[in-house]
Amino acid sequence: xxxxxxxxxxxxxxxxxxxxxxxxxxxxxxxxxxxxxxxxxxxxxxxxxxxxxxxxxxxxxxxxxxxxxxxxxxxxxxxxxxxxxxxxxxxxxxxxxxxxxxxxxxxxxxxxxxxxxxxxxxxxxxxxxxxxxxxxxxxxxxxxxxxxxxxxxxxxxxxxxxxxxxxxxxxxxxxxxxxxxxxxxxxxxxxxxxxxxxxxxxxxxxxxxxxxxxxxxxxxxxxxxxxxxxxxxxxxxxxxxxxxxxxxxxxxxxxxxxxxxxxxxxxxxxxxxxxxxxxxxxxxxxxxxxxxxxxxxxxxxxxxxxxxxxxxxxxxxxxxxxxxxxxxxxxxxxxxxxxxxxxxxxxxxxxxxxxxxxxxxxxxxxxxxxxxxxxxxxxxxxxxx
Length: 385
Prior knowledge:
mainly beta
């Protein structure tokens, strides 16, 4: 049975989901800025727009890392050799780690304050990057998801940020195709999304094992590299690739997935998990779930951790979820939307392939365009500096 009910109870922060649902159309959302702009770049100066960084590609196919200041102006536009994916932010200094899109062959370290590339890191022989990295809570170590090409095994590499990012150790991801990873709030555990899809650089991004996929969410000891917990999906959902995750301060992990099976199948694409408990598969109303087109692009909790958002770029849709009650709240229409970051006290900022940024304020229940650069198509992820 599909879950079609929408939460009407008061959720965290004192915002009524019923109020949100009455403000939004569940299939459309009014944008508070014109989409027919004469200039190539729109800047709506507002202190609410924090420093952001994202990968982007211009109309000539050239790839960049772009940093925006808190007034919506570009402070740096750095050329990279191939398409980048996600940018990790060091919590203690100005450094950023820019991971190439899988199968990636570079990891750039960027000084965000000076707007310059400090270092380019190549993967160890026989491996390639998988698009994501994350810094330890103290900023000392950088963890990257990687693929051992010969065996197809997923690996996690640990690099010392205070020692020129040299590799200090590595361990298994306990699955194939590790993608996004996060630090658990206990600061001792790494959470890894193993997408389950086998690839090989000789065949580019081709998916080589769709019939035998085995995606998983795993918890790994940072100290020992040993597996603490592994959660797999039901056997009939083995083609549901666990790709992107975020974790809140309570240790709830929000999961955004991409289905590799028949396009006509209607499957849950979003889940919640808390360590030691079963995974909760979440359903939007059926017509919205189908609108996602079996592909979620990014997931992010708001600052309080009580709400999370998931983007679906192929479906031109954002879904908003109540993590306390594990329920769907509403959806917002937004063309080619994929990147998400926290914004302000309660909201989110979204990026899309049309060079636009949007802010969503939970209390005001508004999705507002705040920036556009018509020369750039933002990539999959948006990071808050």
